[in-house]
Amino acid sequence: MSSTLFRATPLLRGALRASGAVKPASATFVRGKATLPDLSYDYGALEPHISGKIMELHHSKHHQTYVNGLNSALDTIAEAESKGDFTKAASIAPLLNFHGGGHLNHTLFWENLAPASREGGGEPDGALKKAIEADFGSFDSFRKQMNTSLAGIQGSGWAWLVKDKSSGNLGLVTRANQDPVTGQFEPLLGIDAWEHAYYLQYENRKAEYFDAIWNVINWKTVSKRFEKP
Ligand SMILES: [Fe+2]
C-alpha cells in the first residue's frame, strides 16, 4: 500500500470539503455522502464541440462511478477506523485518492464548462485576463501551452490552470489518472484528457478535442475561482 497516498488523504479531504464536492452531514466528514451534482446545462448543450452522448455517459455513468467508489471507500475507512484497524484503513487510501479525485475533478470540470450559446468560449476579462497576460504572455500563448500540456499526458489524466496560493501566480500542472490538485495550488480550470471525455466523437484525434473545448470554457467560473481570496 502507498503510505504517500495515505498521507495525502487529509489534503484530499480538505479539497473535497472546500469545493463542496462532499458535504458533511455532520461535523464528522466521513458521515457525509458524495452525490452526483446536477449540470446547469443539458447534455446536448455543448454540441457540436462535445456531443450529447459523451456528456450523458461521462456524467451519468463515469462520474457516478467515482461517486459510488468514493462513498464505498469512505464507508470502509470509517468502519476500519472504528475497529482500530489502521492497516485496513490505510490500504483503502489509493481507492479514496482515485474515486475522491475523480469526483472532485469532474465536479470542477462541469462547472468550468458552458454552452457556446451562453457564456461558453471567448476569452476571460478583468483581473484573470491581466494575470494570464502577465504569466503567459498572452491568452493565445496560454491556450497553446495548455494544449501542449494536454497533448503531453501519457495515458489518462488532466491538465489544470492553477493559482499558487502563496504567490498568486498562475501556472499549468498535469495530473495522472484522477490525482486531484491539492496543497499549494488552487485549481481554476481543468480539462479532462481521459479517452472517455472525447473518444466517441473524436476517436484518436484528441488534438481536435483539445482545440474544440475552448469553445465551451466558462470563463465566469474560472474568474470566480481566481478571485476567491
Ligand atoms: Fe472524465
UniProtKB/TrEMBL annotation:
<feature type="binding site">
    <location>
        <position position="196"/>
    </location>
    <ligand>
        <name>Mn(2+)</name>
    </ligand>
</feature>
<dbReference type="InterPro" id="IPR001189">
    <property type="entry name" value="Mn/Fe_SOD"/>
</dbReference>
<feature type="binding site">
    <location>
        <position position="106"/>
    </location>
    <ligand>
        <name>Mn(2+)</name>
    </ligand>
</feature>
<dbReference type="InterPro" id="IPR019832">
    <property type="entry name" value="Mn/Fe_SOD_C"/>
</dbReference>
<dbReference type="Pfam" id="PF02777">
    <property type="entry name" value="Sod_Fe_C"/>
</dbReference>
<dbReference type="GO" id="GO:0005739">
    <property type="term" value="C:mitochondrion"/>
</dbReference>
<feature type="binding site">
    <location>
        <position position="58"/>
    </location>
    <ligand>
        <name>Mn(2+)</name>
    </ligand>
</feature>
<dbReference type="InterPro" id="IPR050265">
    <property type="entry name" value="Fe/Mn_Superoxide_Dismutase"/>
</dbReference>
<feature type="domain" description="Manganese/iron superoxide dismutase C-terminal">
    <location>
        <begin position="124"/>
        <end position="225"/>
    </location>
</feature>
<keyword id="KW-0560">Oxidoreductase</keyword>
<comment type="function">
    <text>Destroys radicals which are normally produced within the cells and which are toxic to biological systems.</text>
</comment>
<keyword id="KW-0464">Manganese</keyword>
<dbReference type="InterPro" id="IPR036314">
    <property type="entry name" value="SOD_C_sf"/>
</dbReference>
<dbReference type="GO" id="GO:0030145">
    <property type="term" value="F:manganese ion binding"/>
</dbReference>
<feature type="binding site">
    <location>
        <position position="192"/>
    </location>
    <ligand>
        <name>Mn(2+)</name>
    </ligand>
</feature>
<feature type="domain" description="Manganese/iron superoxide dismutase N-terminal">
    <location>
        <begin position="35"/>
        <end position="114"/>
    </location>
</feature>
<keyword id="KW-0049">Antioxidant</keyword>
<dbReference type="InterPro" id="IPR019833">
    <property type="entry name" value="Mn/Fe_SOD_BS"/>
</dbReference>
<dbReference type="InterPro" id="IPR019831">
    <property type="entry name" value="Mn/Fe_SOD_N"/>
</dbReference>
<dbReference type="InterPro" id="IPR036324">
    <property type="entry name" value="Mn/Fe_SOD_N_sf"/>
</dbReference>
<protein>
    <recommendedName>
        <fullName>Superoxide dismutase</fullName>
        <ecNumber>1.15.1.1</ecNumber>
    </recommendedName>
</protein>
<comment type="similarity">
    <text>Belongs to the iron/manganese superoxide dismutase family.</text>
</comment>
<dbReference type="Pfam" id="PF00081">
    <property type="entry name" value="Sod_Fe_N"/>
</dbReference>
<dbReference type="GO" id="GO:0004784">
    <property type="term" value="F:superoxide dismutase activity"/>
</dbReference>
<keyword id="KW-0479">Metal-binding</keyword>
